[in-house]
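Two quick folds needed for the group meeting slides. Do the first one here.
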Amino acid sequence: MSFQQALSGLNAASRSLDVIGHNIANSGTVGMKSSRAEFAEVYASSAGGIGGTNVGLGVAVGAVTQQFAQGSLSITGNDLDVAVNGSGFFQVTAADGSTAYTRAGNFKLDKDGNIITASGAQVMGYPTDASGVRQSFDAQPLRLPTGAPIPARRTTAMAAEITLDASAPIAANASPPTPLTTYGTSLTAYDAQGLEIPVGLYFQKTANNTWNVYTSVNGSDPGASTPFQLNFLADGSLDPASTIPQITLASPNDPAVTFPATLDLSRLTQVNARFAVSDLSQDGYSAGQLTGIKIENSGVITATYSNGQTQSAGQVALVNFRNTQGLAPSGSGYWVETFASGQPVRGAPGEGTFGQLRSGTLEESNVDLTAELVNMMTTQRAYQANAQTIKTQDQVMSTLVNLR
């Protein structure tokens, strides 16, 4: 029986060394979770046996369990690197269509703009609108529009924040002076093809607290435009009764193609200060190519384009399980769902018990290399001790055989 006990001890120690070696080999693997061998003593079952007289048959590896403690976060500066700071797994879809889960966030882009893992699995997420508001909890592959530019958008609204000089002289007559540039500014609008449309705004004081506004489109003479009137209250704010008409814009390629745009001048003020333009804005833009992406702590992916626009392109999904120990490792840093793990609970970063994401950061392996080296030495001693048991038993058997 001693041979069997020692042999089981050798097998268990060897299995433990395998686990320790696996941990040490993956100490630099992103998102890797360490494992440990858990032993169980073995007894023979006998009907009616008295527990105090049973002799054990050795040891067996009861389980190899994974330790899902948080790994250290390492800053990489790569926008597509992302780490989960807290609980949760990334959901991925492999090439064969199977679903897996991982903590490794070293993502990449393929030629079609799909966000993929190092082994080529597609990263799953939730659809959002352009402002980052999630539209559903139905996970789908995350994809960025890298193949074609985002289309241009025609200007529909313009706004200006301007300070008019209350001490400016009143114009001698109502006709516009030439050139009309003393109190003026300009901004750029866009047509449906993304072509630039210069728009000028020129102001002429016609009476105390009263100004005429002339406009220019595509370099036209502002003096030829029909002015509209602005009135200011005693505190210098714009009179809400002032009527501001829409501006008719024309495409530079075809002046016959016109379209209206609203003009918001509600932030105009008249004070005793020099003429100053604080802000000009409009909602149109030209076509733009993707120039960069950023993953927010909430998992929302923000894409930046060459036209200066930023748009959201989805939200990284996170899932969790009631029993993470029940997940089955499948290689390449992936785990798969089992009956013991329970079904996945879906969510988003920072919501409920889910951890937040850290962009430009990777989660390192949670292997404690020093502890593993110590475990390796103690396991080696256990292996040697079991081998010594076999040697001692062999000596005992040899003594018995040699009795005369």
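Then this one, please, same format:
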Amino acid sequence: MIEDATTTISVLQPKPTVLSIHYRRYALIMLFLVYMLNFVDRQIVNILAEPIKRELGLADWQLGSLTGLSFAIFYATLALPIARWAERANRVRIIALSAITWSFFTATCGVAQNFTQLFLARVGVGVGEAGCTPASQSLISDYTTREKRASALAFFSMGIPAGSLVGMVVGGLIADKLGWRASFALVGVPGIILGLLAYFTLPEPRDSSFAASEAQNAPTLKEALHELGKNRTYFWLTVAMVAMSFGIFSNLAFQSSFFLRNHANGLSDLAIRLNNLTGIQLGATGFLGTVLGLIIGIFGAAGTWLGGWSTDRALRSNLNAYATIPAAAALCLPFALFATYLTSDTVAALCLLSLPMLLQSIYYGPIFAAVQSLVRPRTRATATAIFLLFANLIGLGLGPLSVGLISDLLAPSLGSGDAIRWGLISTSLVYVLAAAAFMIARKSIKQDIVS
């Protein structure tokens, strides 16, 4: 029984997994590192967008499809069947195989000679990454109690800003020295090594007789869909996730292009000053990748931790915190982004960017913990996969593409710099929809939590 300030809820808890505290920490760190490389390989194309555009002669809509649609098509559609497999099979092996696959295709991006080849290589990255998140979140939920679940999943989700940091910094620095092709090739190798390490060292709780029995009794897809379909909170959290993903991936895909087109002189001046102070030699791309990586990594990680920590504390008295905390952050996001994109000063724009990077990361821990708690343990991977199917197919698949299309339409009259500016500003309004969906989910979340 779990006490709430206004109601008492009876929940079904799975049998605790017997793991030492040190082994549990190791497992969480390993999954964090895998997820971090997931986002290194997924997001590195963002800092490389401009040199790729110049060499291959691409339009902005093609850049948008490389960062979003190519990845999302198979990532979204394969996540569900892989999640169904994860309900019954060894999740560690699925995660390891996924890491090796997406890392191989990331390296393959470096040899692409045209848009079609690069598009297909990015599809391969999406195929590999489809198996990571549902299996990992299901595994983490078996490692931890519900009272610690938001914090554990927030720690796992810190792989998003950490991966973006590494991808931006490493991608930009390598591109400055060796070109964008070398960036893809070199970041692909660590994932293969980490995948093998995860395969041989991560624990799978289903090796116990209890967990094995649970896996054998996993519901059919029809049963799982029925369970999810009647859950009102799950529906509205999915809407919120789609809207958040649309806004986040739209902005991440074109942030480097925005700064390189609108603040090229300011970036060059800042890079020269840094070079004079330190003796290192950075071009505009390397400098921007380093700065954006640090902003996304530091403030994204801070927001992710803050969201998980504050939610776990608030849950002691009110289960509504799963939705209330991310709703407040989402409502503030458009104003923070407007200020960033409308200022003409390069230093001010980079400094202002830190606030939306923090705000857009707050929801990770609460929303993923809520989804894991809204379903029975044996439906968790499927719930996550369906959740991410819509988030990635619509948010990741169409978000960057929308910015690219708006930019291409406005470019003849406004120029490429202002066109990308207003493409980013217009898509940022979607965060208002996310805030509304979170607040609707808030009304039913107490009744719908089951595990």
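Slide caption for protein two: Confidence is low (pLDDT under 50) at residues 1-17.
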